[in-house]
Design a protein that fits this description.
2 domains, 14 helices, globular
Length: 297
């Protein structure tokens, strides 16, 4: 039982929230009321989550010696020795194989190609690219874009350039906040250091976060007022949802700059009721704008 619990922890199931991006094409493609599209997207979510867990385990195998010097990562199953390297390797292969088989059975071949591309990207990330400053967060951002592409394939929705741009910008923004957390942890620890941190500084990261947050807000506002988007959604009111985005980003920045809390997106989201309420508010408001007319007609 303890071994199963350790493997479950190594899979980082709580990080599946990141795979929520897979649902965005379904929602913004007006397929949320299509049962077949919902089932395909659910299958895509499960398949991608299995592949993502395989990647997390692979990263932990690769970083186990470095993680043992980290104040909190040393408690991870592989770094702590609760799961051996051999066990973790087999577990990672089983997870990825399960995701591939599920994708092969339930989804088009193009989705399988996205899963394999995601796996290849993350192998390259684990082996070398994560040690290169900027390239490390670019890889993370590409991984989020692949989630969007996977969701579009599953829902049979064409992906707009807007959603790709905003996803890439948001992932870069979140990646920089995580690197800021890593840099602060390194400053407080005499032993732990991430290889790519030599290419970052607090000043550079803070400037990058500021620039990306501003560009992200502008991109979202331009998206909501774009003539093409208003025509697709049959509504000129999507811009009203921008307020949630602005307030959400400000709250996130407040947590990391004012309260100096860890910049992990998942930890902040699960630990901040205000951020959760803002996200729920944005989701409900957006759904009302996109689907309100259909539900009331």
């Amino acid at each position: 039982m303890l071994k199963l619990r350790a493997l479950f922890h190594a899979a980082r199931v709580h990080h599946y929230v990141k795979n929520g991006f897979i649902w965005l094409p379904l929602i913004f493609g007006h397929k949320l009321l299509d049962p077949a599209a919902v089932l395909r997207t659910l299958g895509a979510f499960v398949a991608f989550s299995l592949a993502a867990s395989a990647v997390y385990v692979l990263n932990d195998i690769r970083d186990r010696n470095e993680d043992r010097l980290h104040p909190t990562k040393r408690l991870r199953p592989i770094a702590s020795g609760a799961v051996s390297v051999a066990e973790a390797g087999v577990f990672s292969l089983l997870l990825f194989a399960s995701g591939v088989v599920l994708a092969f059975i339930l989804l088009p071949a193009s989705f399988l190609g996205v899963i394999l591309a995601y796996g290849g990207l993350n192998v390259a990330y684990s082996l070398h690219l994560k040690s290169l400053a900027i390239m490390d967060i670019v890889c993370i951002a590409i991984g989020f874009v692949l989630r969007i592409v996977a969701g579009g394939i599953a829902a049979e929705v064409s992906i707009s350039h807007w959603i790709v741009i905003m996803t890439f910008l948001m992932a870069l923004f979140l990646g920089l906040t995580k690197r800021r957390d890593d840099l602060m942890t390194h400053a407080a620890s005499d032993d732990w250091q991430r290889t790519s941190l030599s290419g970052y500084s607090l000043e550079f990261i803070s400037l990058g976060i500021t620039v990306l947050s501003a560009v992200l807000v502008v991109a979202y506002i331009l998206y909501t007022v774009s003539p093409d988007i208003t025509r697709i959604h049959h509504s000129r009111h999507l811009y009203l949802s921008a307020g949630w985005v602005v307030v959400g980003i400000l709250r996130y920045l407040q947590r990391i700059f004012v309260y100096r809390e860890p910049g992990s997106p998942v930890a902040l989201l699960f630990g901040d009721r205000i951020l959760q309420l803002i996200l729920i508010g944005w989701m409900l408001h957006t759904l009302l704008i996109l689907y309100g007319g259909r539900l009331w007609s």
